[in-house]
Structure formats: structure tokens, C-alpha cells
Design a protein that fits this description.
The protein has a single domain, classed as CDP-alcohol phosphotransferase transmembrane (TM) domain (Four Helix Bundle (Hemerythrin (Met), subunit A)), CATH 1.20.120.1760. The longest helix is centred in the C-terminal third of the chain and has 32 residues. The chain contains seven helices and no strands. It is an all-alpha fold and 190 residues long.
Length: 190
């Protein structure tokens, strides 16, 4: 006799947080554009919205795993929401000449590349996020938030160092995903 498969409803707290993050992306974008990175109060508002949206990224996955609320919708929507939030932030920071375009290009290329790699190996197995990938996400969030917050000149100088660390970890973990994908494909062919 087969064990009953638990059906998880799509409407659940984890997916609600993912949808909230998606909804907050345009709110964040509008606040950032309105601030023109010169209006301190709007920059603070944009940073707070970015921070809340980022917290939902950590909370939704934890809730889904802890309460057994993992759904196909969540598996697809969560990374889309993550990339929409950080991608929008990076593009806007570069648009306002706060962040060099090459940094935005490198990070976005890595994110697109990892997504394509995951699809490439999907029939061989699922590539879960690595510990390095989680560190990369935390560093990117910290760096973006630092750039958004209107720190005085001395403290604002920390932002590029945080972003430099994020870029290094982003590149290293991107290469790690390539090697893991190749190993996964080889192991399933054997």
C-alpha cells in the first residue's frame, strides 16, 4: 500500500511572503527613482522597503521547509522574486552612477548563468543553493542596503568594500555551480 502524498496548498504563508516580495519590487523601484539618490528621506524609505523585501527572502524558505509548505509555485517564484529585487536594485544603483555598470553586469550574468545551469541539469537532479550562495546573497543585500542608506561620507565608503566582497563571492560561487553541474551530469551518466 502506498503512503498518502501530502498535498500542500499554494495559498500558504511561505508563498504569500514570496508574492509580497514581488509586490515590493516596484514599490522599491519607484521610491529609488523618486529619490534620484539625492533625497535622504526617500532613500531611507527605499532602503527600508528593500530590507523588508529581503527579509521575506529568508523567511519564506524557512517557513516552507519548517512547516512542510514547499510547492512548485514557491520553487519557481522564489528565485524570480530574489533576482527581480536584487537585479532592480543593482540596475538602479548603476543608473544613478552609484555603482559601476560592470559590477551590475557581472552579478546579473552570474545569476542568469546559474539559473540556466540549474535548468540544464534539472533532469539529472536538483542543485540546491550552496552555503556560498547564501553568503553571496547576504553580502549583496548588505552592500545594496549600504548604498541605499544616506550615510555620511566616511561611512558611505564601507559600501564599495561590501560590494567588492559580494562580487568576489558571487564570481567564486558562480564557478562552483559550473563545477557542481558538470559533476552532477557526469555522475548520472555513469
Amino acid at each position: 500500500m502506498k503512503a498518502a502524498v501530502k498535498r500542500v496548498p499554494v495559498r500558504n504563508p511561505a508563498n504569500a511572503l514570496t508574492v509580497l516580495r514581488l509586490v515590493l519590487v516596484p514599490v522599491f523601484a519607484v521610491l529609488t527613482v523618486m529619490s534620484e539618490m539625492t533625497d535622504s528621506s526617500l532613500r531611507i524609505a527605499a532602503c527600508v522597503v528593500f530590507g523588508v523585501a529581503s527579509l521575506t527572502d529568508f523567511a519564506d524558505g524557512w517557513i516552507a521547509r519548517t512547516w512542510g509548505l514547499v510547492t512548485a509555485f514557491g520553487k519557481v517564484a522564489d528565485p524570480i522574486a530574489d533576482k527581480a529585487l536584487t537585479g532592480t536594485a543593482l540596475v538602479l544603483l548603476s543608473w544613478f552612477a552609484v555603482l559601476p555598470w560592470w559590477v551590475t553586469g557581472l552579478v546579473l550574468a552570474r545569476e542568469l548563468g546559474v539559473t540556466l545551469i540549474r535548468f540544464w541539469v534539472l533532469r539529472h537532479g536538483v542543485m540546491a543553493a550552496s552555503r556560498g550562495g547564501k553568503i553571496k546573497t547576504m553580502l549583496q543585500i548588505a552592500a545594496i542596503a549600504w548604498y541605499l542608506w544616506p550615510f555620511p561620507a566616511g561611512l558611505a565608503g564601507v559600501g564599495p568594500w561590501l560590494m567588492a566582497a559580494a562580487v568576489v563571492v558571487t564570481a567564486v560561487t558562480g564557478l562552483d555551480y559550473v563545477f557542481r553541474a558538470l559533476a552532477l551530469r557526469r555522475s548520472t551518466r555513469a
